[in-house]
Amino acid sequence: MGRKDLSKERQDVILDAAERCIAKYGLQGATLENIASEADINRGLIYHYVGNRDDVIQMMVERLLERYEASFANYAATRPESNHTEIVLEYYFDAWFDLAPEDDILFLELLAQSERDPGIRKLLLHLYSGLEKMIAKELLRLYPNVESNNLHSTAYSLMVLAFAHATFNWLGLPQAKQADVRSVAANLVQSLK
After folding, report:
1. What is the pLDDT of residue 88?
2. Domain segments of the chain: what residues?
3. pTM of whole model > 0.90?
């Protein structure tokens, strides 16, 4: 009998350690040395299982998108299917950004670094594109006959509202303002009818 493949397990250990390093030291402090130390492994194992620092960051962004997709699917599965519009709005404007504070830190660090690093900017654009597609897919379930341009324009607008909403939430946006943003988002969705 052959050995158990440890690739996925080791990658998770490395990526978890990288996320903890970013939370502790920021993106600049998430060096391969710090990641190896945090994971309690040899630096060479990072190269073997993930690659260089850029590869680590790319895999973290891909994993972040996967977590967002899985998070929405899990959230939707716990809600009655009868009002899918409400599920979409609840998730993106009430629940989504409360689910994983460490993801917020990772995202904000990547966003700050994207100004100076075209590679990270490209990764974030990939993340945004994936989130926009995820929202468009849900809107298409609600309104299967909507024109493609309207669908993608609305999905983009909801994504921008959700990210801006989350940013101001992190700053302590008053509860009344949160309801206003959700109302605007509901109007956008209803405009697809």
Report:
1. 81
2. 1-51, 53-190
3. no
